[in-house]
Design goal:
Elements (H helix, E strand, L loop, with lengths): L9 H29 L2 H4 L8 E3 L21 E4 L35 E3 L2 E3 L1 H7 L4 E6 L12 H13 L3 E6 L22 H21 L6 E4 L6 E2 L4 E2 L16 H23 L5 E6 L5 H13 L6 E6 L8 H14 L4 E7 L18
Protein backbone atom coordinates (compact mmCIF):
# COMPACT_ATOMS: atom_id res chain seq x y z
CA UNK A 1 0.00 0.00 0.00
CA UNK A 2 1.18 3.51 -0.81
CA UNK A 3 0.78 5.59 2.33
CA UNK A 4 0.55 9.33 2.71
CA UNK A 5 3.33 11.55 4.06
CA UNK A 6 4.32 10.49 7.56
CA UNK A 7 3.88 12.84 10.50
CA UNK A 8 4.91 12.89 14.15
CA UNK A 9 1.38 11.88 15.19
CA UNK A 10 0.44 8.27 14.50
CA UNK A 11 -3.24 9.22 14.22
CA UNK A 12 -2.35 11.85 11.63
CA UNK A 13 -0.50 9.21 9.61
CA UNK A 14 -3.60 7.01 9.64
CA UNK A 15 -5.82 9.87 8.46
CA UNK A 16 -3.40 10.87 5.68
CA UNK A 17 -2.95 7.28 4.55
CA UNK A 18 -6.74 6.96 4.37
CA UNK A 19 -6.98 10.15 2.30
CA UNK A 20 -4.34 8.95 -0.17
CA UNK A 21 -6.04 5.56 -0.40
CA UNK A 22 -9.36 7.27 -1.12
CA UNK A 23 -7.75 9.44 -3.81
CA UNK A 24 -6.10 6.44 -5.49
CA UNK A 25 -9.41 4.54 -5.34
CA UNK A 26 -11.22 7.48 -6.92
CA UNK A 27 -8.71 7.68 -9.77
CA UNK A 28 -8.94 3.92 -10.25
CA UNK A 29 -12.74 4.20 -10.48
CA UNK A 30 -12.52 6.83 -13.20
CA UNK A 31 -9.94 4.82 -15.15
CA UNK A 32 -12.04 1.68 -14.77
CA UNK A 33 -14.93 3.47 -16.46
CA UNK A 34 -12.76 4.49 -19.39
CA UNK A 35 -11.10 1.09 -19.76
CA UNK A 36 -14.45 -0.69 -19.50
CA UNK A 37 -15.89 1.51 -22.22
CA UNK A 38 -12.75 1.03 -24.30
CA UNK A 39 -13.42 -2.71 -24.31
CA UNK A 40 -16.49 -2.16 -26.49
CA UNK A 41 -15.97 -3.69 -29.94
CA UNK A 42 -16.51 -0.46 -31.87
CA UNK A 43 -13.85 1.39 -29.87
CA UNK A 44 -11.28 -1.30 -29.13
CA UNK A 45 -9.57 -1.17 -32.52
CA UNK A 46 -9.16 2.62 -32.34
CA UNK A 47 -7.30 2.75 -29.03
CA UNK A 48 -3.70 1.91 -28.32
CA UNK A 49 -1.45 1.52 -25.31
CA UNK A 50 -1.98 3.45 -22.11
CA UNK A 51 0.35 5.57 -20.03
CA UNK A 52 -0.40 5.95 -16.34
CA UNK A 53 1.32 8.86 -14.69
CA UNK A 54 1.22 11.62 -12.14
CA UNK A 55 1.01 15.37 -12.42
CA UNK A 56 3.69 16.34 -9.92
CA UNK A 57 3.38 20.08 -10.21
CA UNK A 58 2.90 20.36 -6.48
CA UNK A 59 6.18 18.70 -5.56
CA UNK A 60 8.35 21.67 -4.76
CA UNK A 61 11.99 20.74 -4.70
CA UNK A 62 15.16 21.54 -2.87
CA UNK A 63 18.17 22.55 -5.03
CA UNK A 64 19.18 18.87 -4.93
CA UNK A 65 15.86 17.84 -6.43
CA UNK A 66 14.37 16.27 -3.31
CA UNK A 67 10.60 16.63 -2.96
CA UNK A 68 9.58 19.03 -0.22
CA UNK A 69 5.93 19.64 -0.91
CA UNK A 70 2.70 18.06 -1.96
CA UNK A 71 2.00 14.50 -2.93
CA UNK A 72 1.06 12.93 -6.28
CA UNK A 73 -1.52 14.59 -8.46
CA UNK A 74 -3.49 13.68 -11.55
CA UNK A 75 -3.04 10.55 -13.66
CA UNK A 76 -2.21 10.68 -17.34
CA UNK A 77 -4.23 8.49 -19.67
CA UNK A 78 -3.10 8.14 -23.26
CA UNK A 79 -4.67 6.45 -26.25
CA UNK A 80 -3.27 6.65 -29.76
CA UNK A 81 -5.71 8.23 -32.15
CA UNK A 82 -6.23 6.39 -35.41
CA UNK A 83 -5.22 2.98 -34.08
CA UNK A 84 -1.86 1.26 -34.21
CA UNK A 85 0.51 0.17 -31.48
CA UNK A 86 2.06 2.47 -28.94
CA UNK A 87 0.84 5.33 -26.81
CA UNK A 88 2.25 8.82 -26.37
CA UNK A 89 6.01 8.72 -26.30
CA UNK A 90 6.39 6.98 -29.63
CA UNK A 91 8.55 8.25 -32.43
CA UNK A 92 8.15 10.68 -32.79
CA UNK A 93 11.56 33.70 -21.26
CA UNK A 94 14.65 33.74 -20.53
CA UNK A 95 14.75 30.68 -18.37
CA UNK A 96 16.72 30.48 -15.19
CA UNK A 97 17.31 33.52 -12.96
CA UNK A 98 18.76 31.50 -10.10
CA UNK A 99 17.27 29.24 -7.46
CA UNK A 100 15.84 32.01 -5.32
CA UNK A 101 12.62 30.83 -3.73
CA UNK A 102 13.42 27.14 -3.91
CA UNK A 103 12.01 25.38 -0.88
CA UNK A 104 14.57 24.65 1.80
CA UNK A 105 15.19 21.08 2.87
CA UNK A 106 13.42 21.77 6.15
CA UNK A 107 10.14 22.22 4.30
CA UNK A 108 7.93 25.10 3.29
CA UNK A 109 6.89 27.69 5.88
CA UNK A 110 8.60 25.81 8.68
CA UNK A 111 6.72 22.59 7.93
CA UNK A 112 8.53 19.31 8.39
CA UNK A 113 9.40 17.74 5.01
CA UNK A 114 7.17 14.93 3.78
CA UNK A 115 8.38 11.36 3.77
CA UNK A 116 6.70 8.52 1.89
CA UNK A 117 6.25 4.92 2.92
CA UNK A 118 5.44 1.60 1.35
CA UNK A 119 4.59 -1.26 3.71
CA UNK A 120 5.86 0.87 6.58
CA UNK A 121 9.25 1.47 4.99
CA UNK A 122 10.35 5.01 4.00
CA UNK A 123 10.95 5.48 0.31
CA UNK A 124 11.15 7.94 -2.53
CA UNK A 125 7.76 8.98 -3.86
CA UNK A 126 8.63 8.83 -7.54
CA UNK A 127 10.30 5.44 -7.17
CA UNK A 128 7.34 4.00 -5.27
CA UNK A 129 4.90 5.23 -7.94
CA UNK A 130 7.11 3.96 -10.76
CA UNK A 131 7.45 0.54 -9.12
CA UNK A 132 3.66 0.31 -9.07
CA UNK A 133 3.17 0.99 -12.77
CA UNK A 134 3.19 4.79 -12.97
CA UNK A 135 5.25 5.18 -16.12
CA UNK A 136 4.87 8.90 -16.92
CA UNK A 137 5.17 12.13 -14.99
CA UNK A 138 4.08 15.67 -15.85
CA UNK A 139 6.00 18.70 -14.65
CA UNK A 140 4.72 22.27 -14.91
CA UNK A 141 7.18 25.05 -15.68
CA UNK A 142 6.44 28.73 -15.08
CA UNK A 143 8.19 31.83 -16.39
CA UNK A 144 10.37 33.42 -13.68
CA UNK A 145 9.88 35.23 -11.41
CA UNK A 146 6.91 33.07 -10.40
CA UNK A 147 3.92 34.68 -8.72
CA UNK A 148 0.95 32.98 -7.02
CA UNK A 149 1.92 29.46 -8.10
CA UNK A 150 4.35 26.70 -7.09
CA UNK A 151 7.87 28.07 -7.39
CA UNK A 152 8.77 25.91 -10.34
CA UNK A 153 10.66 27.91 -12.95
CA UNK A 154 13.05 25.96 -15.15
CA UNK A 155 15.98 26.15 -12.76
CA UNK A 156 13.97 24.36 -10.06
CA UNK A 157 12.48 21.82 -12.49
CA UNK A 158 15.78 20.50 -13.87
CA UNK A 159 16.72 18.19 -10.96
CA UNK A 160 13.17 16.87 -10.70
CA UNK A 161 13.04 16.12 -14.44
CA UNK A 162 16.42 14.43 -14.20
CA UNK A 163 15.12 12.10 -11.49
CA UNK A 164 12.12 11.20 -13.63
CA UNK A 165 14.26 10.34 -16.64
CA UNK A 166 16.72 8.41 -14.49
CA UNK A 167 13.78 6.19 -13.44
CA UNK A 168 13.18 5.33 -17.07
CA UNK A 169 9.77 7.04 -17.05
CA UNK A 170 8.26 9.29 -19.70
CA UNK A 171 8.49 13.04 -19.08
CA UNK A 172 5.75 15.45 -20.17
CA UNK A 173 6.51 19.13 -19.73
CA UNK A 174 3.61 21.49 -19.11
CA UNK A 175 4.99 24.87 -20.13
CA UNK A 176 2.58 27.59 -19.04
CA UNK A 177 4.17 30.58 -20.84
CA UNK A 178 2.99 32.52 -17.81
CA UNK A 179 4.42 33.36 -14.40
CA UNK A 180 1.28 32.11 -12.65
CA UNK A 181 -1.50 29.59 -13.20
CA UNK A 182 -2.82 29.52 -16.77
CA UNK A 183 -6.25 28.00 -17.43
CA UNK A 184 -9.49 28.81 -19.29
CA UNK A 185 -10.32 31.53 -16.78
CA UNK A 186 -7.01 33.36 -16.96
CA UNK A 187 -4.00 33.45 -19.27
CA UNK A 188 -1.77 36.23 -17.97
CA UNK A 189 1.23 37.55 -19.88
CA UNK A 190 4.26 37.24 -17.57
CA UNK A 191 5.33 40.48 -15.94
CA UNK A 192 8.73 40.01 -17.58
CA UNK A 193 7.05 40.17 -21.01
CA UNK A 194 4.53 42.92 -20.39
CA UNK A 195 4.35 45.60 -23.07
CA UNK A 196 5.25 43.22 -25.90
CA UNK A 197 3.05 43.14 -29.00
CA UNK A 198 2.30 39.92 -30.87
CA UNK A 199 5.66 40.00 -32.67
CA UNK A 200 7.51 40.46 -29.39
CA UNK A 201 5.53 37.68 -27.74
CA UNK A 202 6.31 35.35 -30.63
CA UNK A 203 10.01 35.83 -29.92
CA UNK A 204 9.53 35.29 -26.19
CA UNK A 205 7.53 32.09 -26.69
CA UNK A 206 10.10 30.71 -29.13
CA UNK A 207 13.01 31.67 -26.87
CA UNK A 208 11.38 30.28 -23.73
CA UNK A 209 10.48 26.95 -25.36
CA UNK A 210 14.01 26.67 -26.74
CA UNK A 211 15.61 27.42 -23.39
CA UNK A 212 13.43 24.92 -21.54
CA UNK A 213 14.10 22.01 -23.88
CA UNK A 214 17.79 22.82 -24.46
CA UNK A 215 18.52 23.14 -20.73
CA UNK A 216 16.84 19.84 -19.91
CA UNK A 217 18.46 18.06 -22.85
CA UNK A 218 21.91 19.27 -21.80
CA UNK A 219 21.16 18.09 -18.24
CA UNK A 220 20.38 14.56 -19.43
CA UNK A 221 16.62 15.01 -18.94
CA UNK A 222 15.36 15.26 -22.51
CA UNK A 223 11.55 15.48 -22.35
CA UNK A 224 9.45 13.04 -24.34
CA UNK A 225 6.51 15.42 -24.73
CA UNK A 226 5.91 19.14 -24.27
CA UNK A 227 2.67 21.09 -23.92
CA UNK A 228 2.71 24.45 -25.65
CA UNK A 229 0.54 26.17 -23.07
CA UNK A 230 -1.87 24.93 -20.42
CA UNK A 231 -5.64 24.63 -20.96
CA UNK A 232 -5.65 27.16 -23.79
CA UNK A 233 -9.30 26.57 -24.74
CA UNK A 234 -9.86 30.33 -24.54
CA UNK A 235 -6.49 31.26 -25.98
CA UNK A 236 -3.30 32.50 -24.35
CA UNK A 237 -1.44 35.71 -23.53
CA UNK A 238 -4.63 37.64 -22.87
CA UNK A 239 -5.90 39.82 -24.39
CA UNK A 240 -3.60 39.56 -27.41
CA UNK A 241 -4.33 35.92 -28.25
CA UNK A 242 -7.65 35.37 -26.48
CA UNK A 243 -10.31 33.40 -28.38
CA UNK A 244 -13.88 32.43 -27.56
CA UNK A 245 -16.19 29.57 -28.47
CA UNK A 246 -19.01 31.00 -30.61
CA UNK A 247 -22.44 31.32 -29.06
CA UNK A 248 -25.30 33.77 -29.32
CA UNK A 249 -25.60 34.08 -25.54
CA UNK A 250 -21.95 34.94 -25.00
CA UNK A 251 -20.68 38.49 -24.77
CA UNK A 252 -17.54 39.46 -26.63
CA UNK A 253 -14.41 39.04 -24.47
CA UNK A 254 -13.55 42.72 -25.00
CA UNK A 255 -14.64 45.62 -27.24
CA UNK A 256 -13.44 45.31 -30.80
CA UNK A 257 -12.88 41.55 -30.56
CA UNK A 258 -11.94 40.20 -34.00
CA UNK A 259 -12.16 36.41 -34.04
CA UNK A 260 -10.00 35.91 -37.13
CA UNK A 261 -7.28 38.21 -35.79
CA UNK A 262 -7.35 36.58 -32.34
CA UNK A 263 -6.98 33.11 -33.81
CA UNK A 264 -4.14 34.30 -36.02
CA UNK A 265 -2.35 35.64 -32.94
CA UNK A 266 -2.90 32.42 -30.99
CA UNK A 267 -1.67 30.14 -33.74
CA UNK A 268 1.37 32.37 -34.27
CA UNK A 269 2.29 31.88 -30.62
CA UNK A 270 1.74 28.13 -30.83
CA UNK A 271 3.94 27.88 -33.91
CA UNK A 272 6.63 29.96 -32.18
CA UNK A 273 6.60 27.64 -29.16
CA UNK A 274 6.78 24.56 -31.37
CA UNK A 275 9.62 26.07 -33.40
CA UNK A 276 11.70 26.81 -30.31
CA UNK A 277 11.09 23.40 -28.74
CA UNK A 278 11.91 21.50 -31.92
CA UNK A 279 15.04 23.56 -32.59
CA UNK A 280 16.35 22.72 -29.12
CA UNK A 281 15.44 19.03 -29.45
CA UNK A 282 17.42 18.67 -32.66
CA UNK A 283 17.37 15.00 -33.62
CA UNK A 284 15.97 13.91 -30.26
CA UNK A 285 12.32 12.79 -30.51
CA UNK A 286 9.92 15.29 -28.97
CA UNK A 287 6.14 15.16 -29.24
CA UNK A 288 4.11 18.36 -29.21
CA UNK A 289 0.89 18.51 -27.20
CA UNK A 290 -1.85 21.14 -27.49
CA UNK A 291 -3.90 21.23 -24.28
CA UNK A 292 -7.56 22.20 -23.81
CA UNK A 293 -10.05 21.40 -21.04
CA UNK A 294 -12.96 19.88 -22.93
CA UNK A 295 -12.83 16.23 -21.78
CA UNK A 296 -15.83 14.66 -23.47
CA UNK A 297 -17.11 17.77 -25.28
CA UNK A 298 -16.57 16.88 -28.92
CA UNK A 299 -18.20 20.06 -30.28
CA UNK A 300 -15.74 22.37 -28.53
CA UNK A 301 -12.80 20.06 -29.16
CA UNK A 302 -13.60 20.08 -32.88
CA UNK A 303 -14.01 23.87 -32.91
CA UNK A 304 -10.60 24.35 -31.33
CA UNK A 305 -8.58 21.78 -33.27
CA UNK A 306 -10.17 22.63 -36.60
CA UNK A 307 -8.66 26.11 -36.15
CA UNK A 308 -5.31 24.60 -35.19
CA UNK A 309 -5.37 22.33 -38.23
CA UNK A 310 -6.44 25.14 -40.57
CA UNK A 311 -3.46 27.21 -39.42
CA UNK A 312 -1.14 24.22 -39.95
CA UNK A 313 0.20 24.26 -36.40
CA UNK A 314 2.46 21.19 -36.11
CA UNK A 315 1.47 18.96 -33.19
CA UNK A 316 1.21 15.30 -32.22
CA UNK A 317 -1.07 15.06 -29.20
CA UNK A 318 -4.58 16.30 -28.43
CA UNK A 319 -4.22 16.89 -24.68
CA UNK A 320 -7.32 17.25 -22.52
CA UNK A 321 -8.33 18.00 -18.96
CA UNK A 322 -11.24 15.89 -17.78
CA UNK A 323 -12.83 16.45 -14.37
CA UNK A 324 -16.21 14.64 -14.34
CA UNK A 325 -17.40 16.42 -11.21
CA UNK A 326 -16.97 19.75 -13.01
CA UNK A 327 -18.96 18.72 -16.05
CA UNK A 328 -16.11 17.79 -18.38
CA UNK A 329 -17.39 14.31 -19.20
CA UNK A 330 -18.66 10.96 -18.16
CA UNK A 331 -16.27 8.12 -19.07
CA UNK A 332 -18.56 7.33 -22.00
CA UNK A 333 -18.46 10.92 -23.28
CA UNK A 334 -14.67 10.95 -22.96
CA UNK A 335 -14.41 7.75 -24.95
CA UNK A 336 -16.64 9.23 -27.66
CA UNK A 337 -14.39 12.28 -27.87
CA UNK A 338 -11.34 10.02 -28.20
CA UNK A 339 -12.94 8.09 -31.04
CA UNK A 340 -14.22 11.21 -32.84
CA UNK A 341 -10.76 12.77 -32.64
CA UNK A 342 -9.14 9.61 -33.98
CA UNK A 343 -11.44 9.72 -36.99
CA UNK A 344 -11.09 13.43 -37.78
CA UNK A 345 -7.46 14.13 -36.85
CA UNK A 346 -5.41 11.35 -38.37
CA UNK A 347 -2.22 10.17 -36.69
CA UNK A 348 -2.81 12.31 -33.59
CA UNK A 349 -2.71 10.89 -30.11
CA UNK A 350 -5.28 11.67 -27.43
CA UNK A 351 -4.11 12.16 -23.88
CA UNK A 352 -5.91 13.10 -20.69
CA UNK A 353 -3.20 15.08 -18.93
CA UNK A 354 -5.38 16.19 -16.01
CA UNK A 355 -8.20 14.37 -14.29
CA UNK A 356 -9.74 13.82 -10.90
CA UNK A 357 -12.80 12.05 -9.65
CA UNK A 358 -14.81 13.00 -6.59
CA UNK A 359 -15.03 10.19 -4.03
CA UNK A 360 -18.69 11.14 -3.64
CA UNK A 361 -19.38 11.01 -7.38
CA UNK A 362 -20.12 14.71 -7.85
CA UNK A 363 -21.65 16.13 -11.02
CA UNK A 364 -21.00 14.20 -14.20
CA UNK A 365 -21.26 15.64 -17.69
CA UNK A 366 -23.32 18.59 -18.79
CA UNK A 367 -21.12 21.58 -18.11
CA UNK A 368 -19.52 23.28 -15.14
CA UNK A 369 -16.32 25.09 -14.27
CA UNK A 370 -13.01 23.28 -13.66
CA UNK A 371 -10.69 24.03 -10.77
CA UNK A 372 -7.92 26.58 -11.29
CA UNK A 373 -4.87 25.28 -13.11
Amino acid sequence: MLSGPSRKSESAMVVQAACVAAAVAAIALFLAGILSAAAQPQARSELGKFLLGADITGIETTPAGAPAGYGPGSPIVSARAGGGAGGAGGAGGRAGAGAAGAVAAAGRAGRAPFTYQEDGKPGDELTILHNHGWNAFRVRIFVPPVRSAPNNPLVNAVPLCKRIKDLGAKLLLCVHFSDTWADPGKQYIPLAWEGEDISGLEKEWERHAYDVVKTLKDAGAMPDMIQIGNEITNGAAWPIARVQFPGAAQARPFPGYDDAKQWDNLTRLLKAGVKGAKAAAGRSPLQIAIHVDQGGHWDRTQWFFDHVEAAKVPYDIIAQSCYPQYGHATPEELLNNMVQCSRRYKNKEFMVVETGYSAGGGRRGGGGAPPAG
